[in-house]
């Protein structure tokens, strides 16, 4: 009976709880059962002389018996053989001045797996130094597996702990222990970079990245699934690369704590990839067992931390020496003094100040273990807590959608009734609307015919005047008996050209009425303006000087005929405006307004006009010429500018006269210097006597036909009222 109760107490207090302390209800139940066991075991035989319940018989006090009953028994292990065989020079042990009272033995719990790592000499050196300073009789060293170490920490049976960083982080989460120091190996400069994992494969394989481990033909060799650098850190990295823990575990072979066996498995081809703690490859290479450069290839080696061994995973802190938080401060101080004094780099490292465990907790989060173990399973409460804002927003949106749908259905019914009523009304007026549209169409056709007639009359006046002029000249020469075959041929050619121009005008107007516009082409505006000047001088009688400022190679994508027509209309208006002005002048200038825009202007020094007349210039059928004008010239120019993605503006040209400016897109030449293009163009002056002057002219000046003061072909000339007319 006694054995049964003792077994129950030990069972409930030693149940494995690897990553978290026992829940409060479970520990309370265990304590209650164990206490009941202690009470029953202390009962004497019926009628004995001792007290009724007999508590205190074992330890002398009832509370001592209860505590002894509920305290778990730690299962210690033998010192690892590698630690026992490690050679320590007694001369390296030295006294440290510490003053400590020992009411009992100081108990130090050590994670037994640390004795299977390459740092066994440093581990033995640390323990012997502690025993040397404090005395063997005052120190009890317990080698414990992970479960027993956690159990001893939770029951506070251990004064000090020595474990790997992940094991201590789990223990520290309970708040019972605090770190005193972290191991800093010779291969690192910071305690936070003391250890890592390394992925490697046989040299010559095509595998180069950790992400490729997910392939079906890839297998893994590793040490032990409970070590930080040997497995947990590499597993966290593989999960970050998108590999699942279950698939990785299924293709992994664990070789215990034999690094040499892992390397042999990779070199023999039994496994594709090997995983080891950092620095183990260098240790095997130093022992002459492998050649890293010739035999192995490391996957994704890192160089962004202070760890100087080959490694693939992020670096983590190494062993942590911790102390019971409520321990006598003098014991903590004494142990800290000993640890920080054992700086012997010949044994592999030294003890440094406690490291930051941020990287370890990041690993726990990725692996969903320790304080993040609850994240590995779905929980309704956690889901509601973590997504409360999203759920509230979703419910609000759903409510708004439902409300909108209801209100929309009501609105649809109302609008449907209104639509039906509107449709019935529409049917009643459909006949009237059809008749109205037919009437409007008839009016539009009538208007188009009238507008076309007006435009044709306006534009044909100029070529017909030129034809009359040349025909009259020929008639006078015939009457005078001055027959010159060359002059007659030239004049007939001009008459034919003007007739073709009149025909082109008629065709263009018909095309405009059908909205059939000819395509625009890249053209040199220097030639277009030159043709306009030629046509103007041959068809107009004016004493005005014509000043032309246009540079060669002024390229734009235009309809050359339309631009010429626009310039002719503006020059014709200018000539009409200055007919009674002393020293009349017309200026035609083409300059870049900016990198992408041309500004083509025609200016005169005609009489002053008031603001009201200026505002009415572009209104169709509005003219300042009285009965001699039709009011369509500027309207045609404005339409041409709009078809060229531009516009027409008018402003006063000083005190008297006006300046009309047409803007349209410019095509910069390849390699053009905009600063040079913005310079004022060279000037040419065409005088009323038919002569031309070019101020500061150079041999390179080029003048298109009609801009040289003569007709495009050698021919006789007639002078009428001082105006030159080629015939």
TrEMBL record:
GO terms for molecular function: ATP binding; phosphorelay sensor kinase activity. Residues 690-727 are annotated as: Disordered. The keyword Amino-acid biosynthesis does not apply. Residues 691-701, 717-727 have a biased composition (Polar residues). It is an enzyme of class 2 (transferase). SUPFAM superfamilies: ATPase domain of HSP90 chaperone/DNA topoisomerase II/histidine kinase (SSF55874), Homodimeric domain of signal transducing histidine kinase (SSF47384). It catalyses: ATP + protein L-histidine = ADP + protein N-phospho-L-histidine. Residues 455-668 form the Histidine kinase domain. This is histidine kinase. It comes from Sutterella seckii. The lineage of its organism: Bacteria, Pseudomonadati, Pseudomonadota, Betaproteobacteria, Burkholderiales.
